[in-house]
Amino acid sequence: MVPDPGAFGKGDCYLVDAGPKIYIWVGPDSSVDEKFLAAAEAVFKDTARKGHADIDHVDGGDEPDEFKALFDDFRLTDEDTEGILKKVQMEQHEYKLWRVHRDADNDETFFAEVPYKRESLKSDDVFILDAWEDIYVWRGKDATAREKFDATILARRYDAERVGTQDIDLIEEGDEPDEFLSKIE
Questions:
Q1: pTM score of the predicted model
Q2: Which CATH number do you get for residue 27?
């Protein structure tokens, strides 16, 4: 929920769910991480709609009239909410572990950060390890094909939005290379 619908901060990204159409609004001063998270959430919403959503990318300051018409008082502000990943990446380079899980009952894929330790890896899910210079997609032996697919798409989008070049390594449970094992506690 946005406290002031219609006010779009130049330093942020927003996901606007307009029914059959999903807008990813990208502020001109937004960070790579904010862009990634907005794109990832759009993918999840589209997945929940079985790929039937129309996803549009809107650059802040260049909004089409149909987008502006969704709000009573559309305007740009100088707001910049601190990104949740920006601080970690720019200051600490802390590794992160994300669980990608599909809920078969709702036909939706979810991702959430989990404790960064080996015990978090579960055979029935897929995990993305952001090891700063490398991105690993660890695929549990009992994970569904859809979880594997969704995690790979997320990792590729994350890589595409990130500064620099990261390698994306697909790792099957039981075939973990020493390089991967050394990066996870």
A1: 0.51
A2: 3.40.20.10
Write out pLDDT tens, residues 64-80. Answer: 999 888 888 888 888 77
The answer to the question of residue 172 being in a domain is yes
Element (H, E) at 73: none
Of 19, 30, 82, 20, nearest to 58 (Cα)?
Answer: 30
Question: What is the rounded distance in angstroms from the CA atom of residue 83 to the CA atom of residue 3?
Answer: 17
Strand partners, 113: 98
- Whether residue 48 contacts residue 100, with contact meaning beta carbons closer than 8 Å, is answered with no
Helical (H) or strand (E) element with 39: helix 32-48
Element (H, E) at 86: helix 86-87
Query: What is the identity of the amino acid at 104?
Result: A
pLDDT, residue 49, reads: 73
Task: Read off the pLDDT band of 89 (50, 70, 90).
Answer: very low
What range defines the domain where residue 172 resides? Answer: 95-183
* Residue in 67, 53, 60 with CA at minimum distance from that of residue 11: 60
